[in-house]
Amino acid sequence: MTLDARIPDGPIEQKWSAWLDAHALVGPRNRAAHTVIVVGTGLAGASAAASLAAQGFRVKSFCFQDTARRAHSIAAQGGINASKDFANEGDSVRRLFVDTIKGGDFRAREANVWRLAELSENIVDQAVAQGVPFNREYGGALATRSFGGVLVQRTFYSRGQTGQQLLLGAYSALQQQVAQGMAQVYSRHELLDVVLVDGEARGIVARDLVTGELERHAADAVVLASGGYCNVYYLSTNAKGSNVTATWRAHRRGALMANPSFTQIHPTCIPQSGEYQSKLTLMSESLRNDGRVWVPRDPDEQRPPNAIPEAERLYFLEERYPAYGNLVPRDVASRAAKAVCDERLGVGATGRGVYLDFRDAIAERGRATIEGRYGNLFEMYQRIADEDPYEVPMRIYPAPHYAMGGLWVDYELQTTIPGLFAIGEANFSDHGANRLGASAMMQCLADGYFIVPHTVTHHLTKQRAPVDESHPAFDATVRDVQERIDRLLAVGGTTAPQVFHRELGNVMLDKCGMSRTEAGLCEAITRIAEIRAAFWSDLRIDGDAGHLNQSLEYAGRVADFIELADLMCLDALRRAESAGCHFREEHQTEDGEPLRDDERFATVTAWEHSGEGAVPVAHDEALEFSSVALATRSYK
Amino acid sequence: MRFRLELWRQADPGADGRYEVVEADGIDAEASFLEMLDHVNERRIASGEDAIAFDSDCREGICGSCSLVIDGMPHGPRRVTSCQTFMRDFEDGQTIRVEPWRSNAFPVIRDLVTDRSAFDRIIEAGGYVSVTTGPQPNPNAMPISPETQEQALDAAICIGCGACVAACPNGAAMLFTGAKVTHLNVLPQGQPERRWRTLAMVEQMDEEGFGGCTNHGECSLACPQGISLDVIGMLNREYRAALRGKPVAGTPGMTAQ
Amino acid sequence: MSTVEVARGRSRPRELWDSTIGKKIVAALSGGVLVAYVVLHMLGNLTSLYGAGDGHARVDRYAHWLRTFGEPLLPYASVLWAVRALLLAALGLHVAAVVSLRRRSLAARPRAHRAKRIGRSLSSRTMLLSGLLLLAFVVFHILQFTTLTIDVTPLREGAVYANLAEAFQTWYLVLLYVAAVVALGFHLRHALWSATQTLGVDRPGRNQAIRRGATALALVVAVGFAVIPIAFWTGVLPQP
């Protein structure tokens, strides 16, 4: 198989407009004859569903939550980038493009990233028109701030809940289409398989989570907007329900999975407090502007933090990175925190935590200033950790929170299965090996509002025989799904699904998390095989499949996570270089910085499922950098 | 820590419910209320019993999925979501009663899981600005003062959890509806549909069978987002103006000569 | 689109009555009429404080004036009857709206699971009770002092002062009237603020002032009414 990204010819600035000019259209009166399925109702899914329905296509939108408005995009805090240059700083599409390519450590596709930067300008306009209350300046103009260490203020925000406001905007646009009768939302439904007819995606099999019934839904195109898979680590900043099932089921049906090992671990999260913790909470990384990160020098330190004298504290970021200090990028900060904890210097009950201390900042700038800057974050920390960060240093630890990897898509966001599109975090995205702050929402909404409605339209113009739910392909797929549910229910062991999930997460975080080694990854693959065997022999699911059964839902997701974990380790093993989030200890400079291998790995690795138990096949898409020169990042 | 839980169990929407007493021990004080239930479920599954169904997703207080009435209080004693309620907020050995949202407009699906789709239908009735995807005006062409933006956002932060309905002795959904109407009706983008939106959303709210507001104010006290009772005053004001057919502020009514 | 468009075809009063907010507006406005009357009634009562006045008490003259008001342009007592009709209509609407809303609320929550009290004020949560007590009291009060049907003490038409002086020598009547005006005070305390909220008059900047104003007016009305029976009982006001 050769991967053809189908990038239009011409200069990078004109590729998207050239594509738009050339793509085929469906006449207004013919649109209602086409059904498009959109799976997921986050920023990408809701915006795509609303836009496609507004164009006149029949849209069926699916989410596992009880309503479309709860998708995890709602939790995004910081903001959304747009190269509008409202602050008159000389920002431009090119600058946003270059920042994104560099931030991704040169592992993203230039043409896609350019288009993303170009479309970023429209997103904010669209959201404002929907009534999204972005922060404003005194004169009534949109406010912007800088974010994630870039040199311009291009981030638009609604206090600390930009994701919520943007999602409610997209959700309300979708509800408007529901009212118009153009879209239908199937909440509490989970995609369990994609239905292929003659190699094309022509529908899905979804389980009604309330009645347990397996439903068939035929369509002319299927868009997956089912989010990322960081819950493979068990503890992550993702929602409890976020899962890989939709993309993994598509992968098993033939869609290639690209760069699965690219997962971002965010440094400033509240550490795990105990064995029964179910999720990790992210705090804005702006805290590192004033907080100093340290651990005690003595591994057997027993004193409370404030009693430890200055000389016995190890300010490890300041010592190792004198130039950037506490402000090194996410991946560097995360790796350093892990390293000191591996040396048994970590703090807190679990030993997986480092101090983020505001003592000096409060002494220097006064409590009121610090409160003004971070008051709400301190409050949130106090609520969760039950400690007063004004008095006692915060404890933080990195947590997985975003998957750059995902389904491989071409320029049209179409997977290797014709008619199956992947958007938002579900696709291997425009973020390469590392995502910059405030760019996830930008990508989701660019995909959903402005790209996929056109590329789906283009796909729908290709003549094909109508398919309905009585097609034998649906029978066969429903049979497969039913068999798998029966298999899960029939294991009849004694262990709840979360136990396997937790074990899997421990292995993945340790061996395929912030830093990776060949030996560690090989060990992980062995451990994953053991967990998989144990899962299929000792799982217990209570109840049956004929009603709301959360254990059954969870078990199915864990089973898919186990398979994904294996592929992530293979991918991490194959990529014998360090790039962005992917740090292979064998590939570092003398002073411990990541070492890319552009000769061999300036590529996207897309994995093909080759059957149960068989080794997946890797395909490479070579990345060309003609608009921005390959360069090395340095923070020393 | 150790707790005695009285959990509402109900097999199906139509089934009769009852309280089941469940002992939860070995609970970490730092565990959230939902993690405590996870723990209970994990043990129940291991010992051959069935798990207790409850809704949750983001577990950081923003998605609005979690919906437990804990000792009679929607979300528990701390005016935060159930997922941000921690076991350290309770006494060791305490008996805690856990119920689903109680409202006939939110039928129980199973155990502690309710169907809150009535809220979606209220939004569907008019909780949006009728724009479709496409070129939009320059957002700075319509300046919005920070005060107006703050007022809109103070209402728009509603997470749609339904605690307001669960807290209301009348089972009213005025805080939810008021929050959405306030959000859109104070913004310039919401003006063209202001009157229609208000009427349509109130009508749908009534259609869903929510009760009438008697201004007790408990919805606002239970709201994890702290949404003010003022949004109800705003909704009432908007409704009265809409019913009178008063033209939208700033647009002079035309009279036939 | 559909239901709302259809709904627009209804008459405006119908539309008002059909919605919960509309019914509350009816309750608030009709309540407002009753409050206005109650205040005037209280002020009228206070004329008793001028005392017996040699057989021509101010309050008796006031009662007479109420009946002759508008003469000779209008027939005797016509304004009084018009006011009475208005009050009856307001009371009818008030009760009907409240009953209808109450039924809705009962249907909206499962009866077996009443909501826990979080922050309901005493006056807000006893609205129904205070309302029912007031309704019962009003019936008794009319039967006693207006129609003179219930004559536990001797009553004479037109002799308001004497009737009051006589009646409020009986301890249980004093107690009954004081209790009734206390219920009225509680009812008004929540009702006055609540009505401004329902009518959308309340706004964030005015809220505290309106709430305090409601409490103050409720207190004034309750004290203004209570002062009469207490004054007769304690002998502050002389017998005629």
Quick structural overview:
The complex is a heterotrimer of chains A (636), B (257) and C (240). With 636 residues, chain A is an alpha+beta fold. Chain A is 36% helix and 15% strand.
Strands, helices and their partners?
The complex is a heterotrimer of chains A (636), B (257) and C (240).
Chain A: H1 15-22, H2 28-31, E1 35-39, H3 43-55, E2 58-62, E3 80-81, H4 93-103, H5 110-129, E4 144-145, E5 155-156, H6 162-179, E6 183-186, E7 189-197, E8 200-208, E9 214-218, E10 221-224, H7 245-252, E11 257-258, E12 263-269, E13 292-296, E14 313-314, H8 316-320, H9 330-342, E15 354-357, H10 359-365, H11 367-385, E16 394-403, E17 406-407, E18 420-422, H12 440-460, H13 472-490, H14 497-511, H15 518-538, H16 550-574, H17 598-601, E19 603-608, E20 617-622
Parallel strand pairs in A: 1-2, 1-10, 2-6, 10-18
Antiparallel strand pairs in A: 3-5, 4-5, 7-8, 8-9, 11-17, 11-19, 12-16, 13-14, 13-15, 15-16, 19-20
Chain B: E1 2-9, E2 18-25, H1 33-46, E3 69-70, E4 73-74, E5 95-99, E6 108-110, E7 113-114, H2 117-126, H3 146-156, H4 163-167, H5 174-186, H6 194-207, H7 218-222, H8 230-244
Parallel strand pairs in B: 1-5
Antiparallel strand pairs in B: 1-2, 3-4, 3-5, 6-7
Helix pairs in contact in B: 2-6, 3-5, 5-6, 5-8, 6-8
Chain C: H1 2-7, H2 12-18, H3 20-45, H4 58-68, H5 78-108, H6 122-125, H7 127-146, H8 160-167, H9 171-198, H10 207-234
